Amino acid sequence: MARLTIFGPSDNQDRIAVSEALRNETVGGVLMLIAMVAALVWANLSPDGYDSARQVQLGPLSLQHWAADGLLTIFFFLAGLELKREFRAGALSNPRQALLPIVAAFCGMAVPAGIYLTVNLVGAGDLSGWAIPMATDIAFAVAVLAVVAPGLPPSLRTFLLTLAIVDDLGAIVVIAVIFTAAINWLALGLALACAGIWFFLQQRRLDKWWLHVPLFVGCWWFMHESGVHATIAGVLLGLLTRTSPYESNDPVDRWEHFWRPVSAGFAVPVFALFAAGVSLKPSALADVVTHPITIGITLGLVLGKTIGVFGGAWLTARITGAELHGGVRWREVASVAVLAGIGFTVALLVAELAFAGQPVEIDHAKAAVLLGSVIAALLATIALRICLRQRRDI
């Protein structure tokens, strides 16, 4: 059997998909950054006004819950579509090639969770937030990579995207299993019935929007009422969507092309606006930076993600005897691993779920997500710039 080569060149279809994802996620990352800054300014200049706006009731949900439970479903729907494509015709369709990003992603979830638990066991903190530093934010990570290191091999960008997609799948499983309390089985059954009809229509190639939109809304609402987090409906429907490399009007490609700008340009930034507002007053910051929750999340993102992702990739290569493709260096893989410590969208969502009803702990967790993400972004920028300089000097 030929020796496995990792980080090799992508085919033309993969390069097109990666390039389009980079463009959309880069713009989305910038918009998310703007929304995050706006949330911080608003929450600190007018904390009462910020909290009041989050609690404004629109129909059955508040603005805060519409953003977290409603708009983020679009984000998770896209994650489901990406997973379906990757499993069918992308980097995850070849078991040998898929092993590296899968192992790297799972190690990149396990090590941060272990660091968080260790810190909070030693510091007598709250163990509930162990899942917060597990998530990588695709938009922010890809935006940093595209802006500061455009000259790196495309295979490293593909690795980061695939890693983040598998990371999202892990976060989805955690949300579905860990943060689901009492289940309304009738509502869950109705949600699954909507998903079953969606799958049937896909197999029959009935792609009419007026059939799928009501099914999407129905599946989302029944999932919300069941007690399972509503965003799981988006992932489920994305995975049940038909895709084929031989179909000219592939619904996965068509719907992703339509919905990705909506997610990156509206849904995720609005979620960030209503989720990222935390107090930056000196008295609050002094407590935050010394709290076990904050230390555990920050170290989990900055150290845990880097060690887990790089360690998982390196160990997989050593165990399987795989070789790096010519031109790719392990220090470049390590620099990309640092990027995985940028956790934002899913990390903030998990923070609200993990510490539901505990506003002080939620603020500590959110502050840690912001702090850890900023540190990881700065360290990754420095490391990536060094890698680019070394490439030019060769």
Going across the major beta sheet, what is the strand order?
A: 1-4
Strand content: under 5%
Which architecture of the domain at 5-55 and 101-177 and 282-393 per CATH? Answer: Up-down Bundle
**Please, what is the average pLDDT?**
85
Largest sheet properties: 2 strands, parallel
Q: Any idea what the shape is?
A: globular
**Contiguous helical run count:** 15
The percent of residues in helical segments reads: over 70%
Q: Structural class from helices and strands?
A: mainly alpha
The CATH homologous superfamily of the domain at 5-55 and 101-177 and 282-393 is named: Na+/H+ antiporter like domain
Catalogue the unreliable spans: none
Plain-language structure description:
With 394 residues, the protein is mainly α. It has a domain of 240 residues: Na+/H+ antiporter like fold. The protein is 75% helix and 2% strand. The radius of gyration is 21 Å and the shape is globular.
List the defining traits of the structure above.
394 residues, Na+/H+ antiporter like fold, 2% strand, globular, two-stranded parallel sheet
Q: What's this model, at a glance?
A:
The protein is mainly α.
Helix and strand topology:
Elements: E1 5-6, H1 12-45, H2 47-54, E2 57-58, E3 61-62, H3 63-89, H4 95-122, H5 138-148, H6 154-178, H7 185-203, H8 209-226, H9 231-239, H10 251-275, H11 282-290, H12 292-320, E4 323-324, H13 330-339, H14 345-354, H15 359-393
Parallel strand pairs: 1-4
Antiparallel strand pairs: 2-3
